[in-house]
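Exercise 7b. C-alpha cells:
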C-alpha cells in the first residue's frame, strides 16, 4: 500500500511541477522591453509543405538590447519568415537586407506594461488552478485507497503532505510572478 501512496504523491508533485514549468515557458514569451529570441518561439513557417518552428530553419539571436536578428539557412525563406512574423501579430516590423531579418523591439509604453502585467497575472492564476487541480486529483486517489483499507490517520497525514506541497508550489508561482512583474515594470 505504501508504494501506491508514494506513487500518487510523486504523480501529484510531478503535475504541480509541470504547471510551474508551463508558467515559466509562457512568461518567457512575454516581452519586457528587451530583445529576446524566445519572443519568436510560437512562430512556425511553411517549409516544403510542413509547418516548422522558426528556430529549426534559422539562427535567431540578439544584436543588442533592442534588436533581434534572424538568419535563415536558405535565403528563399526570408520573405516567408517576414510574412509569418507579421501574421503572428507580435507588434514587430521586420526588415531584411537579403541576408538576414532584423526586428527592432520598440520600448514599452506605460499602458502596454500594465497590460502585460495583467497578462502575467492571468497566466499565474492559470498555473495556480493547475496546481490545485493536481491537489484535488491526488486527494481523490488517496480517498480511493482509504476505501481499500488505508487507515484514517495515514490518510490525514498524506492529505497534510499534499496540502503542504500545494502551498510550496503556489508560493513558488507567486515568486515567479513577482519577478516577471518587476521585470516588466522596470524601465
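Sequence design result:
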Amino acid at each position: 500500500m505504501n508504494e501506491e501512496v508514494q506513487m500518487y504523491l510523486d504523480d501529484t508533485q510531478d503535475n504541480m511541477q509541470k504547471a510551474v514549468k508551463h508558467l515559466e515557458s509562457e512568461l518567457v514569451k512575454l516581452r519586457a522591453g528587451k530583445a529576446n529570441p524566445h519572443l519568436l518561439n510560437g512562430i512556425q513557417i511553411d517549409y516544403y509543405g510542413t509547418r516548422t518552428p522558426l528556430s529549426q530553419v534559422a539562427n535567431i539571436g540578439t544584436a543588442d538590447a533592442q534588436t533581434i536578428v534572424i538568419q535563415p539557412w536558405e535565403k528563399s525563406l526570408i520573405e516567408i519568415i517576414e510574412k509569418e512574423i507579421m501574421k503572428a501579430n507580435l507588434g514587430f516590423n521586420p526588415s531584411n537586407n537579403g541576408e538576414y531579418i532584423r526586428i527592432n523591439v520598440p520600448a514599452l509604453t506605460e499602458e502596454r506594461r500594465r497590460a502585460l502585467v495583467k497578462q502575467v497575472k492571468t497566466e499565474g492564476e492559470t498555473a495556480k488552478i493547475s496546481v490545485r487541480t493536481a491537489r484535488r486529483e491526488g486527494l481523490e486517489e488517496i480517498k480511493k485507497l482509504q476505501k481499500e483499507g488505508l487507515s484514517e490517520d495515514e490518510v490525514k497525514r498524506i492529505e497534510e503532505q499534499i496540502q503542504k506541497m500545494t502551498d510550496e508550489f503556489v508560493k513558488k508561482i507567486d515568486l515567479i510572478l513577482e519577478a516577471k512583474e518587476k521585470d516588466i515594470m522596470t524601465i
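Instructor comment: The two ends are 55 Å apart (CA to CA). The longest strand covers residues 58-64.
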